[in-house]
Write a structure and sequence with these properties.
Chain lengths: ~325, ~325
């Protein structure tokens, strides 16, 4: 089945660009709503960092290292490389007796304007701690110390990644058809949009007291909602959407336009993928579905910014707007 | 008719994202090849700057102001705001007895890393001359001085924009169904992909001695090919593609993934639009069509960078590649 029209960009009263995708809302009874092809196989990319963090808690590594809830949120983050993110990762690595050199995520210029300015104007190069995935990797290193694995923890055959794959296939309810190498060099396992939504529903229904995995899932979703600034950063969609929902819903973006949501009060999970990989569309689409489920208020400023607001040019003139495609949202 | 699959992004041996679009190759006899819907109406955005510059020459304004070929190339540019671009616009405005305040394009941070660093590290704000469209606007101001119009030259009813619309509809061979406000505040007239390709074929077939419009079109296409660094900037697709083809072909990108090409030796024009607005796909698609027509060598490094090369992550590891969708290119 083909992707469904989801988000449109209009200019001068005419359709200029359009984004198609796949989306699934998964509830206690299974798939409740689907657009596009619910069986489409996708790479979830960074949208599954909370799944990749499950073994960190289940193994006892988190407790042994005395990780805080704030650190658990950072383990699920695609952060902006703000000073608070870099410093939190630096403290975490120091606590493990490790350094930036032990990371395998690679270095890239942070998204945060202040930190970027500091680096550029001092002719400094970013370190691996600036990588948006460095919190996830600090989690991998914490699990690795507990498992006693080798230094190349991003190898798909490494105990850390084997534990991640096992947890991933169990919560998605599917055998992954394969994996790709992610931007941060870790394996990223493929699944269907339905599998991803099923996994988010598991997180949404998980109870703190309910068994090893349920407890881990509940703690991670709660950590994301309580420390939204650690999951992305100021002005980012994930952070602002979680703040707008008072931390009662956990959301996470992934590269190439994946977005997921965990709604504990409704015991629902959402997963969507815009097939062209456009983040502007995945952010608008998840906003529309959160509005549909009543988890987000239409009146909140973040809704105007990500979906309903006017598009403006360099002089502030209105040039157009985003619209939901007929049949979506 | 719907858009055709054109460019795919593969990761780990699986399709991760895909881009659909419309494309037309127009020759002396009319449409030679088409993908997607050749009648799809699009906003050409900055891909039509050479059309918007036709009245500048046809009116005699260019000659009266003594514009150089380098300035004509700049009038067709979406430049990176490099020092040479800003200085060329500053000199141009000074020659007209005008200043940055007379521009109506708005200001934005330049794309050029060196100029951006200079501004950021000196806590300076960009001026309108940094706007990627400032060369086009300098052309508008030059035409405006010749026509004696008012200061608001981006108003759709202003003599400058009326002249642009007239030229636009004549070279596209279509009555424009409407216009939108572009990022630089100028009206951007809509046309079909075929109309845009027809216009590019007119430029390709135009002879320097062949009448007022033909002469203007030939000079503009020649100026773009001779000063590719003024049309975009170092490392940009337009500049590198024109350099790779020895200036014998003029190409131009437009926002929301439009790309056009003028091939004088073949008297052919190309126009394409990726419906989701992704530049990575429009750059790959125009590269594929230039290869198809034999205008570009497969062995040139720019082909590897824009189309055939591996996608790598922050550690330089290969993560995947772009592929042409079946039936395209």
């Amino acid at each position: 089945m083909t992707a469904a029209p989801m988000i449109e960009l209009w200019r001068g009263g005419m359709l200029e660009s359009e984004h198609h995708g796949h989306a699934v809302i998964y509830g206690p009874g299974g798939v409740e709503m689907a657009w596009g092809d619910p069986n489409a196989v996708i790479f979830p990319r960074s949208s599954v960092k909370m799944i990749q963090a499950l073994p960190l808690i289940e193994s006892g590594a988190s407790e042994a290292a005395g990780l805080t809830e704030r650190q658990l949120a950072l383990a699920c983050a695609s952060h902006s490389g703000e000073a608070r993110h870099r410093e939190a990762v630096a403290d975490w690595l120091a606590m493990l007796g490790l350094s930036d050199d032990d990371l395998r995520c690679g270095a890239h210029m942070p998204r945060d304007p202040a930190e970027k300015k500091r680096l550029i104007c001092s002719d400094s190069t970013p370190c691996q701690m600036h990588n948006n995935c460095s919190g996830k990797h600090a989690g991998f290193l914490t699990l690795n110390r507990h498992l006693g694995g080798g230094s190349e923890y991003v190898d798909v055959m490494h105990p850390v990644q084997k534990a991640v794959k096992s947890a991933f296939e169990e919560v998605t309810g599917e055998t992954s058809p394969g994996f790709g190498i992610d931007g941060c060099s870790a394996p990223n396992f493929a699944t269907s949009v339905t599998g991803l939504a099923r996994a988010m529903q598991f997180f949404a229904a998980a109870k703190p007291g309910g068994g090893l995995r349920e407890n881990a899932a509940a703690r991670l979703a709660q950590a994301m909602g309580r420390y939204p600034e650690m999951v992305a950063g100021d002005g980012r969609a994930c952070t602002d959407l979680m703040r707008a929902m008072g931390g009662r819903v956990a959301v996470k973006t992934g590269a190439e336009a994946v977005f997921v949501a965990i709604l504990p009060e409704q015991q629902r999970g959402i997963a969507l993928k815009i097939v062209d990989g456009a983040t502007r569309a995945s952010e608008a689409a998840i906003t529309a579905l959160l509005l549909r489920l009543g988890a987000l208020e239409h009146s909140h400023p973040v809704v105007e910014r990500l979906l309903t607001g006017s598009q403006r040019n360099w002089r502030g003139l209105i040039t157009g707007e985003l619209r939901l495609a007929p049949g979506f949202g």
